[in-house]
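Exam revision sheet. Question 4 asks you to relate a sequence to its structure. Input first:
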Amino acid sequence: MRQLWICTTIPLAISLASASSSAQMPNKEMAQATVAYAAKITASAIFVSGRTLESVLEQELAPTRPLERLIKPLLKFDIDRGALQVTCRIGSTTATAQRMPALGCTLLISDTAPSKLRRNFEMTEAPFRSHAEDATWPYNETVSNKPTTGIDQAKLTAAIDRAFAEPNPKQPVNTRAVVVVHQGQLVAERYAEGFGHAMPLPGWSMSKSLTNALIGMRVHDGKFDLDARARETLQDNESMQPPTVRHLMSMTAGIEWDEDYDDPNSNALKMLFGSADHAAVYANLPQTISAGKRFQYASGSSNLLCKLLRDSFDKDSDYWRYPSRLFRALGMSTAILETDPSGTFVGSSYCYASARDWARLSLLFQQDGVFFGERLLPEGWVEQSTTPVRASNGRYGYQIWLNADPGDNGRDDRKWPDLPADLFSMNGHEGQHCAISPTAELIVVRLGCTKNGGFDLHGLLRDVHAAAAK
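Answer key, structure tokens:
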């Protein structure tokens, strides 16, 4: 077992700053949120991505705000590579995350240790499909060396240079990977030192768009009903329209939710780092407005979708194997979707995949749910998923962000008026992005660890589109 005392704070632990500007110990609640976050993201970084603790300390766990630096709580890490566990401590407060076979890492919350079934679960499916030896990406990991057409390579290189630039050392951008696909061909990629094309990296909320695909595939199988009730009604107000699965998909369920990652009392943090059953946190909250009336971004909505997806299977083993069906169909050999302590997939946040594999998922959406000639999503699913939900003002569809015209005022009201209106994207915490631009036949993947919203996605997309306008 490797034991380290380190002196650091973490982005989540800005909540610790509310305790005091002095270096006093945080209260129990704050400390618990901190150690749970640190244990979980460190375990996944080490046991899923294959990174070092030093890398995690340098990026995810780096203090970025003045009060974080003042407090400097001592975090003790116990890394047990034999048991595949990471334990983090602040004083007597501890949290442990463990790697599960084939299911990534999960926190061990109180006495909800993983069941024997999940501990022993193994993938028993056929290996990833093989293709002709002369085939190139996305069929395998060989990148075509054919000259690219329709791309100004100098402009594209300059765009990627800017994505990796570090103009302010005090606010590092930490771009880890950029992949650009044009007309189905991987035309450019770059990785930071210590990262590579085969390393699975966190998508955070890009995982929500993966959840979209998993739901769509189940609908295509005829095993999932978008118009079914999302939960049992928790109030007697019969005048209030209850949410359906469609409302969960569009973030319009009318359920109150606090998606705040600085407040240890927020719904989002209590769910991800303090609950055994993530879906239940959302399902048990009050509905305050009729479903469909208000857009409210809620990671709990995505996790309730994953619980309903679980309920559509007779056996948990079939449910846990289900994402691998999609990954194999797309050739996503690095991808893994983690579960919460209860065994339900955390479709809001915990998919890990390489930049190339995130690009493959993007291609599935760009190609209307068809991949390698096989229809995986229902015909019209992508169009439905990228149609703006009225309450979102043109910003959101089904677990996907949009650049659509919100109303009668046209492009001036779009988020990015200078980019195509049919552009849509998967977006995640700390600057994870997959942008799909059907008209331009472009996919742009950017993975990194940028704090405080500091990555210029708009600039990257604008520059790459300009390079493709040759």
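Marking note for examiners. The longest strand covers residues 93-100.
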